[in-house]
Amino acid sequence: MLILFVSAITLKAQNNIKESNVFSMDGNVETMRVAPGGMLLVGTSDGLTVIEAHNKNVVFQYKSLGKIKPEELTLLENLPYVVLTRGYSKVILSYFTGKEVFNSSKDGWGSVFMVRPDYTNQKIYMLGGTAKGYSLGVFDMETLKNENTVSFTDKKTMGAYIDVTKYYESNGKLFVRTEKGIVCVDKNNFTIDWVYDDLDKATPYISVIADSEKGLFFVTESDGKKSLLHKIDGSGKRTTKKPEKLEAIPQALSITSKGLLVQMFDGKDSFFQMYDLKTSENKWEKPVDIRGGIFIAQPTETNLYYASHNGLMNSLDLTTGKTQLKKEIKTGPVFKNVVLLENDLIFYITSTDMGIANFKTGEFAKDPTKFKKATNLISSYDTKNDRFVVSSGTELFFIKNDGSSIKVMDIDFKENETPTKIEFRDNGILLGAKQNNLLVSYDGKLIYESYLKAPGQSLLGKIAMGAVTAALMSQSVNQNMAKNYKDARYSANAATGMLGEMNKRFSATKESRNYLYILTKLEDGVGLVKLNKEDGKKVSELVLKDKKPEYEVDDDFGILYFKNSKKQITTFDLR
């Protein structure tokens, strides 16, 4: 999705990019938002209008709320729903049909503060207020039917209010913060299991972790100065006389076979301590003190592997809390990525080098690879060849799990650009930025390099590239390294109805993803150039005669939406 906010009067199309449809709005266009599935949501001074890619007719208009401002329109990720917010009320529409699937004022909710999907269980949770008081609503993801409502009405144990902006999840339970403590809700039947009412109402930092099958519930709280650990049983009672004092503000909790591992930070130093699962007393003689913050901490059955921001790595014995390497593994400063591999190996990238280290020996598998100049470090995992692909901004590397690396090439993007994406394609690896792109084969040979001059700094300054940057950043190395990784968000695609429709639409967009759309300066003015990703060749152009166009491009469905007047949108077929 490319979003460019600039104003315009005329357009000239050439080389196959032709005007396809013109849509007249009833009100002034306030905002345009490309939605997954080939839809454009247009907020106007008159309401919401939805246009479908390559369809000459408006899908629907929704005028019940009147003028729609940009901040009032929210998309639910990977779901065909748009949330319209007006004050404390919310309306949720299916943007494929325009059907109102939820309306807080009509459905008995005086206010809705939070809407959060649970993709694994195909539910949507809402926290807000009903006639009974503060409540948690449980809705079917497919139909938005209200399946359960949990009301927090017991002021004696819960207090006068709840935190309606968030909740905590662990091991099949939901934990809602109230004025006095925590309410535990079972996700299977959505009933309240217990209420714990002994938290300080002023503490802003809360963490919760549970193993409900074993009746283990731990809650930490901190006001920044005083930090406490509460151990709670299956009936909501604290099992100790008083809460356990913690060293600093808790940052992460892990239930291990050795006990409860707590990671803490006091603003300068980090601490690890193990607490007994029965008594909540500390098991190690003293907490492990590590200078600086922690970049990553990953417990296994017997060890804790960690990397600190100051460039040191080590492992702890979970039984004793002792460091297992006499000397920390020293890398360059400022970690950019760290991935725990098999056989006690760890892959790391810092601002100065990268390599594979061994936690058993404390040695590097091979000498670390030094970067000539790191301007923008991005990385991804090439599953086909079982290796990492790393761009330092000025160089491209392949590095294997044994630490052996190959410098593939120097990168010299024009206009001081550096790669912001790594995409694996059938014929090679594509590295790209706004104006520059290059494709290298899997054996490291350059297939092509393309560059199109930017349309001018004054115009580029007006381009909102946030969404582009987020979309083009390389996939998480940690995600790609997980052999059995499954993103629960996409389990929604197995459903039928609207969710199935969304899945069907995306399976039909592969052809559009074979092209790049680059904004540049053409002979006749500023324009959009369509390039083939396979060979870098220009396919077609769309010339924008005016200096300040306002439009959006849907890359997935190959369409450009152009605002050519206050009340009119013209579409261009980019396929």
Q: Please, could you describe this protein's structure?
A:
InterPro entries: Quinoprotein_ADH-like_sf (IPR011047), WD40/YVTN_repeat-like_dom_sf (IPR015943). It is a single chain. With 575 residues, the protein is mainly beta. The chain is 5% helix and 48% strand. It has five helices and 49 strands. The strands form twelve sheets. The protein has a five-stranded antiparallel β-sheet. A hairpin with a 3-residue loop joins strand 4 and strand 5 (39-44). The chain starts with a strand and ends with a strand. Mean pLDDT is 86; it is low at 1-14 and 457-496.
A few lines on this structure:
Helices cover 5% and strands 48% of the residues. The protein has 575 residues and is mainly beta.
Give structural attributes.
single chain; 575 residues; mainly beta; five-stranded antiparallel sheet; four-stranded antiparallel sheet; 5 helices; 5% helix; 48% strand
Which descriptor suits the 3D outline?
flat
How would you write the strand order of the largest sheet?
Answer: 1-47-48-49-3
Distance between the termini: 15 Å
> What fraction strand?
over 45%
Mean pLDDT: 86
Structural class: mainly beta
In quaternary terms, these chains amount to single chain
Number of helices: 5
Topology:
Layout: E1 2-4, E2 12-14, E3 18-24, E4 29-35, E5 39-44, E6 48-52, E7 58-62, E8 73-75, E9 81-86, E10 89-94, E11 100-103, E12 109-118, E13 123-130, E14 133-140, E15 146-151, H1 155-158, E16 168-170, E17 173-177, E18 182-186, E19 192-196, E20 205-211, E21 216-222, E22 227-232, E23 244-245, E24 249-256, E25 259-265, E26 269-275, E27 288-291, E28 294-299, E29 303-308, E30 312-317, E31 329-330, E32 335-340, E33 345-350, E34 353-358, E35 369-370, E36 378-382, E37 387-391, E38 395-400, E39 405-410, E40 421-425, E41 428-432, E42 436-440, E43 446-451, H2 457-460, H3 466-472, H4 477-481, H5 497-507, E44 515-522, E45 525-532, E46 538-544, E47 551-554, E48 559-565, E49 568-573
Antiparallel strand pairs: 1-47, 2-46, 3-49, 4-5, 5-6, 6-7, 8-9, 9-10, 10-11, 12-13, 13-14, 14-15, 16-17, 17-18, 18-19, 20-21, 21-22, 22-23, 24-25, 25-26, 26-27, 28-29, 29-30, 30-31, 32-33, 33-34, 34-35, 36-37, 37-38, 38-39, 40-41, 41-42, 42-43, 44-45, 45-46, 47-48, 48-49
